[in-house]
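User: Could you go from structure to sequence for me? I need the amino acid at each position, not a summary. Structure tokens:
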């Protein structure tokens, strides 16, 4: 049993002002795996005051000092990487290969990228008589979700540290362990007192207190659209900057000249990865109507090939994060059936032989873009295949969404893929795959307004100051 009942405030492990604990459930077993403390606004006040005090010096620290700090964190992160992977497996059910692979690698990647960017970043530049300075925005509230815990926390903490900001992290209540270990890593690496603080607890208490706080300069939030809307309202009275990274319903367009078998198999397996709990997952697979029969066969075969089971074993997919998430996904599958979508793989209930744990069947529907299962973010292993008539129709369907986070285009002819990618109203598009830690990531429309990753992630945490007359004779 894990027991993490202290918060990290002002460089010390600190008991909550008002003691209150909550159990953490392992989604693979439905058993209690440990406990955390739930904080209150009084804890937030202490952490914000510490971050404000620390900003007076850390905000003026040199790039060299910040690089040394990030490199010390890097060494400590690498030393504890396996523990982070184990924690992620227990808290949100990622299979061990994924938890100890891509999950922890993403965190390390954002750290290494922040170091690379900081070495080259221009905080000052003269244009004519004016000096343009990029200065740290100040005290930041970082609010993160459970689905890729190290990705979401590291993509915020390291650019914020590199920029010279101080911060309070509010990790997800469902997946709190890896953040606790990350706080230990930062402590061990020698982050100055008050620069990084962490309080566990409920979003509606800790997240809301940070969003409303008079002395917090900026909120960076990753999570669902309704919570993002609430945070903007809570932050409005203090006119703080709010960076939002929200949900998605991303389209994967398979062009007519693409290798159908490989792409449909890849898109289907990709949708099931991390149990479908990826904001940028290609959850709408757009395929040529003339080849729908072949697509159905390929998708059904790929879905049935996805192994589901105990995250400690060598499976492709573990459970979803919680009972409530399981129930929501079941309701969407039921809705798809009611709406008349054609079920070609998976469906309601748990996979055979898995009676305990929040396991969902890898599910594939063929449907239309007006169905609820094609419009709302399900956040589970449910793929909707949608046939299109021609390229214009494919682009129209892709863009007919409230969201605009990810997008995928597969095809042999690169010029056609590029032309389609230009027409898609979405923040990140993968043309025939690829991966880049320096590519900005964020959403159009209701997928948010921020841009994280690489150099663009730094700008979230910087103010721009003009000193006019700097260059005057
Ligand atoms: P969520 O919105 O329920 O919770 C996210 C965080 O916000 C948690 O820490 C939660 O405790 C906190 N929170 C809840 N209520 C709050 C409030 N009133 N004020 C302040 N904070 C509050 O989301 P989730 O279920 O943890 O994560 C899944 C969602 O995150 C999906 O919609 C997914 O698409 C999205 N997501 C987006 C990205 C991206 O980069 N765009 C990445 C990952 C996940």
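Assistant: Here is the amino acid at each position, in order:
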């Amino acid at each position: 049993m894990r027991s993490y009942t202290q918060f990290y405030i002002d460089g010390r492990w600190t008991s909550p002002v008002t003691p209150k604990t909550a159990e953490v459930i392992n989604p693979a077993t439905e058993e209690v795996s440990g406990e955390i403390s739930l904080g209150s606004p009084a804890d937030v006040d202490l952490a914000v005051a510490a971050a404000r005090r620390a900003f007076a010096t850390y905000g003026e620290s040199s790039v060299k000092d910040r690089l040394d700090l990030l490199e010390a964190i890097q060494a400590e992160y690498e030393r504890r990487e396996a523990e982070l992977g184990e924690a992620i497996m227990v808290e949100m059910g990622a299979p061990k290969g994924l938890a100890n692979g891509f999950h922890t690698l993403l965190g390390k990647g954002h750290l290494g990228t922040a170091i690379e960017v900081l070495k080259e970043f221009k905080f000052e530049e003269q244009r004519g008589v004016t000096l343009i300075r990029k200065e740290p925005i100040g005290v930041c509230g970082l609010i993160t979700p459970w689905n890729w815990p190290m990705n979401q926390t590291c993509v915020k903490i390291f650019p914020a540290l590199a920029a010279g900001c101080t911060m309070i992290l509010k990790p997800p209540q469902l997946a709190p362990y890896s953040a606790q270990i990350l706080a230990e890593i930062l402590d061990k690496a020698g982050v100055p007192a008050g620069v990084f603080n962490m309080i566990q607890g409920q979003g509606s208490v800790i997240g809301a207190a940070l969003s409303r706080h008079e002395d917090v300069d900026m909120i960076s939030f990753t999570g669902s659209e309704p919570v993002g809307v609430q945070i903007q309202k809570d932050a409005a009275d203090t006119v703080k900057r709010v960076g939002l990274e929200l949900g998605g319903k991303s389209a994967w367009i398979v062009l007519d000249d693409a290798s159908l078998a490989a792409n449909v198999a890849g898109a289907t397996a990709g949708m099931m990865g991390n149990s479908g709990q990826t904001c940028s997952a290609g959850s709408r697979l757009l395929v040529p109507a003339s080849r729908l029969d072949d697509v159905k066969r390929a998708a059904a075969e790929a879905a049935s090939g996805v192994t589901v089971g105990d995250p400690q074993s060598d499976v492709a997919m573990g459970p979803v994060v919680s009972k409530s998430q399981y129930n929501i996904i079941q309701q969407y599958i039921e809705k798809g059936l009611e709406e008349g979508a054609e079920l070609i793989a998976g469906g309601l209930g748990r996979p055979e032989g898995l009676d305990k744990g929040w396991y969902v069947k890898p599910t594939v529907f063929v449907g239309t873009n007006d169905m609820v299962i094609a419009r709302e973010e399900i956040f589970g292993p449910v793929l909707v295949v949608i046939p299109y008539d021609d390229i214009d129709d494919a682009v129209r369907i892709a863009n007919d969404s409230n969201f605009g986070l990810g997008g995928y285009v597969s095809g042999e002819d690169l010029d056609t893929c590029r032309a389609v990618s230009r027409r898609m109203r979405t923040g990140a598009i993968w043309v025939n795959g690829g991966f880049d830690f320096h590519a900005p990531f964020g959403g159009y429309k209701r997928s948010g307004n921020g841009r994280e990753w690489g150099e663009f992630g730094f700008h979230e945490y910087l103010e721009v100051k003009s000193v006019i007359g700097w260059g005057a004779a």
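One structural detail worth keeping in mind: The CA atoms of residues 276 and 380 lie 4 Å apart.
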